[in-house]
Specification:
alpha/beta; 4-stranded mixed sheet; UDP-n-acetylglucosamine1-carboxyvinyl-transferase, Chain; globular; 24 strands; 2 domains; binds uridine-diphosphate-N-acetylglucosamine
Length: 444
């Protein structure tokens, strides 16, 4: 470990000035919007570039706060990150001299833990903060750590940090997860590309972002194959080369705009959208009664003919891909506020993802929150403008959706959460005819 690098984090948690969204609701959205590259792919691709000293180039990268943070974390390790034009990032990890990911980075963005696998595999050691420090519980990383141990890593946990090393080289092995984990699968796969021998990962996450990462790793010269829907096999290589890749479209942003059209009675064309990645949501729209038409790299949705009461209630349950994504639960709940009858929601993936519905109630939604995983939504509700507070990224975008559908004006606090993962969300909505501005927030 290099000893003397000064502690100079540019992103030391100096809170950004608070901002809020001010929204005048009740305007149908119309027009064409281009879906950005997927956050959950871009972050892993940037980390994967650390597997080689050669230059990697990424296109269609979303311009979002999480990408900025990941680039700063990489920069502090000694990785050269260039941003020659919007959406394009070049990463050269030739001179990594500081194998330490601090709490400041991990607390700001849990996805920084994805650096464990690549750094350990290439450099044989890394010290990485437990995301959230000692707060072990709701978003644990035990499956990542167990996966590295299955590949021969020695990992100790002290004072909020994992001290990981792989004397010699990581060894290929069996990585068997007790449950499906997206980043756990990705971390294991990244580590295995430079391990000695063959690795089998099972059950492997099936999210499209995992396959985007596989495609990039293969472009780098890695041998990674999905041999069954839930199995990924990796033959380790001694070294990988630089490569270029264009990030796949963000399916969560896609779902967010589909709901925006549906709840405002609008008509949208989504360009650069992969309909095949939102099948569960499109099926749900069919059951609820909103027409969605899939084209090649585009999706059309026309809700202009719908009248209040036309939509039908529908029970939903989130699950790993190809099921309904937990990240789409919040926008889907906004849609269900407009459906006639009672829709039961089962958030089966995370236990902290249902609480946000109490904020949605402030805009007039009729919702019973039953426990950490279950709620019932009674509709159709006539949403009205209100003041509400964003607690996390996906809930934030969904409160915006509700405010766009509501009569009157809303003030939604906590805009910074949304900037983490949605590129120019206010500008994109403005271009579709919404009245939404982001401005300094003086209230809580
Ligand atoms: C990723 C996505 C996130 C999405 C989630 C589920 C990124 C950056 N984030 O998160 O947007 O909501 O997939 O689709 O890609 N678990 C453990 N121990 C672990 C890891 C996970 O118990 O070590 C549990 C989690 O608490 C959760 C479940 O496993 O209940 C699934 O989580 P996981 O798939 O790992 O989510 P992430 O990869 O963190």
């Amino acid at each position: 470990m290099a000893d003397a690098r000064p502690f100079h984090w540019e992103y030391v948690p100096e809170a950004p000035p608070p901002e809020a969204f001010r929204i005048e609701g009740g305007r149908p959205l119309r027009g064409t919007v281009t879906v950005s590259g997927a956050k959950n792919a871009a972050l892993k691709l940037l980390a994967a570039a650390c597997l080689t000293g050669e230059r990697c180039r990424f296109e269609n990268v979303p311009e979002i706060e999480d990408v900025r943070v990941m680039c700063e974390v990489l920069g502090d390790l000694g990785v050269v990150v260039e941003h020659p034009e919007p959406g394009v990032y070049e990463v050269a990890a030739g001179d990594v001299d500081w194998l330490f990911i601090p709490l400041e980075a991990a607390a700001k963005m849990r996805a920084s833990f994805i650096l464990l696998g690549p750094l350990l595999a290439r450099f044989g050691r890394v010290i990485i903060s437990n995301p959230g420090g000692d707060r072990i519980g709701r978003r644990p990383v035990n499956l990542h750590v167990d996966a590295m141990r299955a590949l021969g890593a020695e990992i100790e946990y002290r004072n909020g940090y994992y001290y990981a090393q792989a004397p010699g080289r990581l060894r290929g092995g069996e990585v068997t997860f007790p449950q499906v984990t997206v980043m756990g699968t990705e971390n294991a796969m990244l580590a295995a590309t430079l391990a000695d021998g063959h690795t089998v990962i099972r059950p492997a996450a099936q999210e499209p972002e995992v396959d985007d990462l596989i495609a990039f790793l293969c472009e780098m010269g890695a041998e990674v194959v999905r041999t069954a829907p839930d199995t990924i096999e990796v033959e380790g290589r001694k070294r990988l080369r630089g490569a270029r890749h264009s990030v796949l479209p963000d399916r969560i942003e896609t779902g967010t705009f589909l709901v925006a059209a549906a709840v405002t009675g609008g008509k949208l064309t989504l360009e650069n959208a992969a309909c095949e990645h939102v099948t569960a949501l499109v099926d749900l729209f069919a059951k609820v009664g909103v027409p969605v038409e899939c084209g090649a790299r585009a999706i059309h949705i026309d809700a202009t003919g719908l009248r209040p009461g036309d939509l039908r209630a529908c029970d939903i349950e989130t699950s790993p891909y190809p099921g309904l994504a937990t990240d789409l639960q919040p926008p889907t709940c906004v849609l269900l506020t407009q459906a006639t009858g009672t829709s039961r929601v089962n958030e089966a993936v995370f236990e902290d993802r249902i609480e946000w519905l109490s904020e949605l109630r402030k805009l007039g939604a009729s919702i019973d929150i039953e426990d950490a995983h279950h709620a019932s939504i009674h509709g159709p509700a006539r949403l009205h403008g209100a003041e509400a507070t964003i607690g996390d990224l996906r809930a934030g975008a969904s409160l915006i959706l509700a405010a766009l559908a509501a009569d009157g004006s809303s003030l939604i606090h906590g805009a910074h959460h949304v900037q983490r993962g949605y590129e120019n969300i206010d500008r994109k909505f403005q271009q579709l005819g919404a009245s939404i501005v982001r401005s300094a927030d003086t209230a809580p």
